[in-house]
Automatic annotation (TrEMBL):
Pathway(s): Lipid metabolism; bile acid biosynthesis
Domain Choloylglycine hydrolase/NAAA C-terminal: 2-313
Family: Belongs to the peptidase C59 family.
Organism per entry: Limosilactobacillus walteri
Pfam families found in the cross-reference section: CBAH
Domain of life: Bacteria
Name of the molecule in the record: choloylglycine hydrolase
Enzyme Commission numbers on file: 3.5.1.24
Catalytic activity: cholate + taurine = taurocholate + H2O; taurodeoxycholate + H2O = deoxycholate + taurine
Keywords from the named record: Hydrolase, Lipid metabolism
Keyword Heme: no
Major enzyme class: hydrolase
Length: 325
């Protein structure tokens, strides 16, 4: 499972938890402005916005899991196994392979509104990256530095682009159903509840956090959607960048999957392999991993974004304990 969130705190922060049972060897990858981006069914982009995100590189192509661009737009792909449906190439449409959607949007959109425009008359085409690497069943959240966000889902009904009023995405079911489910939890609150059940009877509030008593806590995607929405909606705004990114990771940690809790096969467990969060205004990409709680950062503006070749940073996966004696 995965969870993605946009959080506004002066600047906006966007990223995700990547939950899977096996690490795919991802790296932090910068695609500079003048690296030629080829598409299977769309014109080549010789120049475009610079991109930073988590990806694997195959045949010199960045297969992004999630990323942001220098204009403050972010996008993440999350599993959508079952409802996801991609179509054959259709004449007269913008045919985008699912693995191209992240670079397609980030290379060209400077806002969610522009991303929507890019998606009009689009078709997510059922094109595999290679014989060995088949299209993954995904849906996507796109967000920008104003805090706006949309959800993009391609199902048998066609391509749906929904406004995302909560700025959260997990996995199944389809996005409108996630919002219906969220309604069930609208009375969940950081404050103590009002006794409307038996107002004339004294019912003790025997614990702090009583208002969040009915918040779901499972690993499943509906539970994570509700919990992440609650954590994000009530997250404090920090006084500076360090406080904000710290708050951001606390939101993601509220739905982090510890090893051993989500069995996806005999003795095989899905877990939060990495969490990342970017400052959409400053172009700084932060991440932590399951094995390394320290926050690491790559600032895209410290690289030559006018260059023509991919820039990669290996993941810093070693736990660093600061011994105090
Ligand atoms: C598995 C990842 C999503 C994580 C997630 O949502 N897990 C939940 C699992 S579940 O609901 O509980 O089943 C997705 C996110 C981005 C995906 C990758 C990116 O789309 C880039 C390429 C695209 C290629 O078509 C397939 C390999 C791939 C490298 C993808 C592998 C995998 O499907 C990734 C890594």
């Amino acid at each position: 499972m995965c969870t993605s969130v946009i959080y506004q705190a002066g600047d906006s922060y966007f990223g995700r938890n990547l939950d899977l049972e096996v690490s795919l060897g991802q790296q932090v990858v910068i695609t500079p402005r003048d690296m030629v981006l080829n598409f299977r069914e769309l014109p080549t982009l010789e120049h475009h916005y610079a991109i930073i995100g988590m990806a694997i590189v195959r045949d010199n192509y960045p297969l992004y899991f999630d990323g942001i661009n220098e204009k403050g737009v972010g996008i993440a792909g999350l599993n959508f196994d079952g409802p996801a449906h991609y179509f054959p190439v259709q004449e007269g449409k913008k045919n985008i392979a699912s693995f191209e959607l992240v670079p397609y949007i980030l290379a060209q959109a400077s806002s969610v509104a522009e991303a929507k425009e890019l998606l009009t008359n689009a078709n997510i085409a059922n094109i595999n990256f290679s014989e060995k690497m088949h299209a993954a069943p995904l849906h996507w959240i796109v967000a920008d530095k104003t805090g706006a966000s949309i959800t993009v889902e391609s199902t048998t009904a066609g391509l749906n682009v929904y406004d995302n009023p909560v700025g959260v995405l997990t996995n199944n079911p389809q996005f409108p159903d996630q919002l219906v489910n969220l309604s069930n939890y609208q009375s969940v609150s950081p404050a103590d509840p009002q006794n409307t059940l038996a107002p004339d009877t004294t019912l003790p509030v025997y614990s702090r956090g009583f208002g969040s008593r009915f918040l779901p806590g499972g690993m499943d995607s509906e539970s994570r959607f509700v919990k992440a929405a609650f954590a994000k909606m009530h997250a404090p705004v920090g006084n500076n960048e360090v406080e904000n990114i710290t708050n951001y990771f606390h939101i993601l940690q509220s739905v982090e999957q510890q090893k051993g809790l989500d069995e996806v096969g005999p003795n095989t467990y899905e877990y939060t392999i990495y969490s990342d969060g970017s400052n959409l205004s400053k172009g700084i990409f932060y991440y932590r991993t399951y094995d390394n709680n320290q926050i690491n950062a790559v600032d895209m503006h410290k690289e030559n974004l006018a260059s023509t070749t991919l820039i990669t940073y290996p993941i810093n996966d070693q736990q660093k304990i600061e011994y105090q004696n």
